[in-house]
Design a protein that fits this description.
This protein has 390 residues and is α+β, with helices and mostly antiparallel strands. It has eleven helices and 13 strands.
């Protein structure tokens, strides 16, 4: 962290031309171990905060001006003013997340009346499915909490971030990403009921195994993907099911109940989408149980089943993710592999015995590069806590 702080400080003084009363913050990314596309369907998810993330340095001003600079973007310094903030115009600027968090927190009662100068830098690959947008929302929310309104809780920050995503950015996402980041605990994953926000922090006792993130390096943005289309298909299927069964979400159905009632879903595509949501929710609950019982081999099998459902029923994987997953499964020491995140590019994860990790990475890199034409990236996961001042 000291090197990151030094780089941020150096950049800040170069960009803004002064040494200020600096505060430093960090927000992690997240990886979802299992439970994909269930969060907006009222189901369970199992994410964890990781060591990759976004760091920021900020100095408050005596006026209402806001100046923002990202070391990862080519936008230069973006200036705004608290007096004239307007809703983001979907410019795809990273500063839309800053503006959105300020406005949501102001609407919720926080008094943010002084501007600030901000520099951020991240090692979380953008568009990778590791929740760079939620990471940024939580970073800004936690920074605003510390500087302006200590009464705000981390859970509220997660909810504020989801509002920004839905109302300001235009992505109809669930709560998982922001919640996993804001509420993350070191060396634990969160078994979260997205319908109630009740959760259990589950220790990750890996017994000689590790999770390896495999990045396709294919960029994708949720707002430009078929994410919203998948959500709409599930909502339509739910409406049809509600004509014969009293439920508020697909997450309330067991697989057996779904099979009994699914005849009412008229479109076979919508039926497959709903089937994934229901079965993935059941897989997630079972995966947590087997992990707590140290049955990692069974957890790996459930990861494999999750990917196949996402591949054929939900259709959100694509050739890049399938190539990574198929290649990883060929390797000795790998118990399971699946895509993680929204899909349409982004990342997959593999559960692999630690001593076979590098061998697996070399094999996957070779197969992927030959088939796709460019190299993937790999990150061995460390499970960290939530946002913090550093």
């Amino acid at each position: 962290m000291d090197k990151i702080k030094d780089n941020l400080r150096k950049t800040f003084t170069e960009i803004y031309g002064y040494e200020g009363d600096f505060r430093y913050f960090f927000s992690p990314g997240r990886v979802n171990l299992i439970g994909e596309h269930t969060d907006y369907n009222g189901g369970h998810v199992f994410p964890a905060a990781i060591q990759l993330g976004i760091s920021g340095i900020v100095a408050q001003r005596d006026d209402t001006k806001i100046r923002c600079y990202s070391m990862n973007a080519d936008e230069g310094v973006v200036e705004k003013d608290l007096k004239t903030l307007a809703e983001p115009t979907h410019t795809r600027s990273w500063t839309d997340y800053v503006t959105g968090m300020i406005q949501v927190m102001q609407e919720e009662g926080s008094v943010i009346d002084r501007g600030f100068d901000l520099v951020i830098c991240g090692n979380l690959p953008l568009g990778s499915g590791l929740s760079s947008s939620a990471c940024l929302e939580v970073l800004i929310g936690y920074m605003l909490k510390v500087l302006y309104d200590p009464k705000v809780t981390n859970k509220q920050i997660a909810l504020f971030g989801q509002r920004v995503e839905n109302e300001y950015i235009g992505v109809n996402s669930g709560i998982m990403d922001q919640f996993a980041i804001a509420m993350g605990e070191e060396n634990k994953a969160l078994y979260l009921d997205t319908a109630t926000l009740e959760y259990e922090a589950v220790p990750l006792n890996m017994s000689g195994y590790t999770f390896v993130i495999m990045n396709t390096n294919k960029k994708r943005e949720l707002a430009d993907s078929k994410y919203n289309e998948r959500r709409a298909e599930c909502e339509q299927a739910l409406e049809e099911l509600q004509s014969i069964v009293d439920i508020q979400s697909l997450g309330e159905l067991s697989p057996e109940e779904f099979e009994a009632y699914s005849f009412i879903i008229s479109d076979p595509v919508r039926k497959r989408r709903a089937k994934h949501a229901v079965y993935e929710n059941a897989r997630t609950s079972l995966a947590v149980k087997v992990l707590m019982a140290d049955k990692l081999n069974l957890f790996g099998l459930l990861m494999n089943a999750s990917h196949e459902s996402l591949r054929f029923d939900y259709e959100v994987t694509g050739v890049e993710l399938d190539t990574l997953v198929d290649a990883a499964r060929e390797c000795e020491g790998v118990l399971g592999a699946r895509m993680t995140g929204a899909g349409f590019g982004g990342c997959a994860i593999a559960l692999v015995r630690y001593e076979y990790s590098l061998i697996m990475q070399e094999h996957v890199k070779k197969i992927y590069t030959e088939k796709i034409g460019y190299e993937p990236s790999f990150y061995e996961v460390e499970f960290k806590g939530g946002p913090q001042e550093i």
